[in-house]
Amino acid sequence: MDNNQFVLPESPVQEIQHPLLEQKKIKLAIKRDDLLHPAISGNKWRKLKYNLINMKSKGYDSFVTFGGAFSNHLYASAMACKTFNLTGHAIIRGPDIDENNPTIKMARACGMNLYAVNRKTYRLRHDPAYLKSLQTEFPNSFIIPEGGTNKAALSGVAELAKSLPQSDYVICATGSGGTVAGLAKGCAHSTQVMGIAVLKQADYLNQEIAQLLTDKHSGAPWQLLTDHHYGGYGKFTEDVWTFCQLMRQTYQLPLEPIYTGKMLFAVWQLISQDYFPQGSSIMTIHTGGLQGLDGLRYRGLITR
Questions:
Q1: In the chain, which residue ranges form alpha helices assigned H by DSSP?
Q2: What is the pLDDT of residues 50-104, one digit of tens each?
Q3: Annotation marks residue 218 as catalytic
Q4: What's the Cα-to-Cα distance from 34 to each of 38, 59, 98, rounded to whole Å?
Q5: I want to staple 39 with a disulfide (CB 3.0 to 4.6 A). Which of 29, 76, 79, 81 is the partner?
Q6: Does the predicted model carry a pTM greater than 0.70?
Q7: Which residue positions are annotated as catalytic (predicted)?
Q8: What is the rounded distance in angstroms from the CA atom of residue 157 to the CA atom of residue 144?
Q9: How confident is the model over 136-172, as pLDDT tens digits?
């Protein structure tokens, strides 16, 4: 694996024009990281990049990671196996594996090894004793946390931050906190980084993000908004899905309603409520995950 494989041209920035934005005197743009890599989309590429580089530099010949059966991280990790000819092992929150699930089918096609565990075992995914047992079960395997979020991930997301034009606000969807932490690490101190939590009762993420950044953090100030989950993780309202479809039709901007669609809908509501001062420039981050639409269709949560 050559490190040059990890050097990609930057994804484009798309500006959004709308009468609401003109009325509120707000500049809104979206960083199209869904277009960053042909197979490993958005923040999952950013997070995996330095994990894979570390894996290679430390002499590991495979990796072990964790995810739900429909997770974007599972999809991205499987694609990394296929793209870079790696051996990957995924611990799946089970207790069973549905072989007809489109994410599972794709992971199998990429040659990833899948192991279903019950939810009690899956909850041990951060436990040092459990991780040590996995290291024994999968010798010479590099362990990548659920969602890819760790210190190495921050370096990849910080590269994203440094690629952005100067903005007053940089906003992303937040599941595990790694993208917020990486943006805060890489953005200028004059920028306010905001995370829109996509799960219920997400206040604990404030501590997780702070731990990732450590006390030496000298980058951008950050905050987490926790009242825009629209039902919780993996859930969404009809309003969110209608908004996603409208953005696709009007701006050729594909969205899914679990992460980026939910985030951008929340930003739209905040703009309409005058949350941001007039004259503000807002950069939102498209973190990819569009393959999740196949999973939503499979589960009958959307029909188009």
A1: 19-24, 42-57, 72-84, 102-109, 119-122, 128-137, 151-163, 178-186, 205-213, 238-251, 260-272, 292-298
A2: 999 999 999 998 999 999 999 999 999 999 999 999 999 999 999 999 999 999 9
A3: no
A4: 9, 30, 27
A5: 79
A6: yes
A7: 71 (nucleophile)
A8: 16
A9: 999 999 999 998 999 999 999 999 999 999 999 999 9
Query: What CATH number is given for 3-38+151-298 in this structure?
Result: 3.40.50.1100
Which of 41, 71, 141, 176 is the catalytic position? 71
C-beta atoms surrounding 262 within 10 Å: 27
Residue 303, pLDDT score? 87
The CATH number fitting domain 42-148, selected from 3.40.50.1100, 3.40.50.300, 3.30.365.10, 1.10.3660.10: 3.40.50.1100
Contact 35, 291 (CB under 8 A): no
Q: SS in 3 state form for 125-183?
A: CCCHHHHHHHHHHCCCEEECCHHHCCHHHHHHHHHHHHHCCCCCEEEEEECCCHHHHHH
Angstrom distances, CA of residue 30 to CA of 106, 109, 121, 254? 28, 32, 38, 12
Query: Looking up tokens 């100067």, which residue turns up?
Result: 166
The reply to whether 42-148 shares the fold of 3-38+151-298 is yes
Q: Report residue 6's pLDDT band, with 50, 70 and 90 as the boundaries.
A: confident
Spans of all domains in the chain: 3-38+151-298, 42-148
Single-letter amino acid code for the residue at 221: P
Side chain identity, residue 108? R
d(CA 78, CA 72): 10
- pLDDT (mean) for 165-193: 96
Share of the chain above pLDDT 70, in %: 99
- 8 Å CB contact between 259 and 33: no
